[in-house]
Write a structure and sequence with these properties.
The protein is an alpha/beta fold and about 230 residues long. It contains five helices and 14 strands. Helix 3 links the parallel strand 10 (about 145-150) and strand 11 (about 175-180).
Length: about 230
């Protein structure tokens, strides 16, 4: 089978964790670890990308499974693996929120924004991002986004309003909200969708080819947490 005929399939595994499969290749964004707030994931990945060094997002061991040992990417830089081109951009997180945050101080943790070019599609995962102010390097390098994963949960990441503001400015074809299932503030997803105000779709998974993106601009797709269905 020619590679361009293969569908990309994206599933949500809670928190900020997404599994992306393309033929025999599997990517894991922010896999949930054993000591996380959520149940750990358990599947094999060829590439694992960690945005924030926290058990809710750094479970590389949990996606080392079967015959798959992932190529781990845990910070900013440029990477290439198995035909996948990845750029990581330095940014800030305040997750998890602390007592300092309640007093108006925002602790600063390293967060990495990932831009992933897989075949002819570009995925951007914002990680546990806390601010709409992206670096000049990120703004200049991130372009023509097909799928944008944006945190909407507050409590150390973007609020619904800020998430929508940033997502619209980046002009992706599809927006996938995250950090609302199992973590994030109560009703975070509802607040984001209300802010967006232009309708949304829900699905168990996202199956894509480049041609499926024609005519889409800022479509919001809520991916259900497959882990909650399994339980």
């Amino acid at each position: 089978m020619l590679k361009w005929r293969v569908n990309m399939v994206i599933t949500h595994h809670g928190g900020q964790c997404f599994k992306v499969t393309f033929g025999d290749l599997t990517l894991a964004f922010d896999p949930i670890g054993k000591n996380g707030t959520l149940p750990p994931v358990r599947f094999g990945a060829d590439i694992a990308l960690v945005s924030r060094d926290h058990p809710d997002m750094n479970g590389i061991e949990e996606v080392t499974y079967g015959d798959k040992v992932p190529f781990a990417i845990t910070g900013p830089g440029e990477y290439e693996r198995a035909g996948v081109v990845i750029q990581g951009f330095l940014s800030q997180s305040a997750y998890p929120a602390s007592a300092k945050a309640a007093q108006g101080e925002r602790p600063g943790y390293i967060n990495t924004i990932y831009s992933v070019q897989l075949e002819d599609m570009t995925l951007v995962h914002l990680g546990a991002l806390a601010t709409t102010e992206l670096s000049q390097e990120a703004r200049e390098s991130i372009d023509e986004i097909d799928v944008l994963f944006v945190p909407v949960g507050g409590g150390g990441v973007l609020t619904g309003a800020k998430a929508h503001e940033l997502a619209v400015s980046l002009e992706p074809k599809i927006i996938v909200p995250m950090h609302w299932s199992g973590i994030g503030q109560p009703k975070a997803l509802e607040a984001f969708l209300k802010e967006a105000g232009n309708g949304s779709e829900k699905a168990d998974k996202l199956t894509l080819k480049k041609k499926d993106l024609l005519g889409r601009t800022g479509s919001i797709l809520v991916l259900e947490n497959v882990m909650s269905k399994a339980n």
